[in-house]
Amino acid sequence: MAKLKDKIENGLNDVRILILGAQVLIGVDFRVFFEPDFSSIPPPTQLAQLGSLGLMILGLGPLLLPAAFHQIAESGEETARIKNLTSVVLNFGLLPFAAGLAASIFMVAQKLSGNGMAWAAAITLGSFAMILWYGLGYLNYEKSKKDMTANKDQQDETEMSKEGTPLTDKIKHVLTETRMVLPGTQALLGFQVVIFLMQDFDRLQKSMKWMHFGSLVAVAISAVLLIAPAAFHRIAEHGEDSERFHRTASIFMLWAMFFLGLGLAGDFYVITWKVSQSQALASWTSGILLLFFYGLWFGYSGWKRWAEK
Prior knowledge:
The chain has 309 residues and is mainly alpha-helical.
């Protein structure tokens, strides 16, 4: 049976794969709203696409939660709680993206061949994703459950009760968590830059253009913060492990998540306004999105940390 630290590392690596795919999908969906032919799509489909984008962005919140929770609530320690949280995130984190994929294929198929083909394609792709992502796993769940030893949770608790997590392992985890966020952030940044060169962007109000620019800057700051630990490790620490580096990398990652949430909410404001022409709706939806991110990543993690004291 795998050790607790290996379970945590494997879980974080699994989440990392999901986040990269999720943020690329989100970046592509952001761009769709600025394509010249988007305005020719029926309004209900435009709203469905907006809803699917919002759902996928909301889904990104839980996927990033383990990184914040591990550093805030657990101070980088290896615990059964972070392992269990990561498992929950992996179990349910893909649901919004199955819906998002289905909505995207609906839009494409509707333009190509009408509503009948669109519904068939969306249901087929959505079902295919759900079968592979969930059906296949739960089909083998009982068998794998029987193969596990009954005292695995007790083993995790026993490993926790030892001297604590070695500094080297803490640093490995925080770097893994940084790599969870970085690739998708860079991909999203690329899509944000490209939007400036698209025709529909020129038709936006000036305030919306500045909002998008601000969102791009926020995501760029996030990317800079996520890259910074590598430079700090080589220059300041000469590649050595130290408590200072662990603390610095953790702070950089948490601030990067702060700016990433700001950038995502800002761009969702622009997209919502573009589709609905309603500043009130755009303000409410983007505000709720930002509160959801910050409440989940920082509020919940901080509460769990202080609740244990």
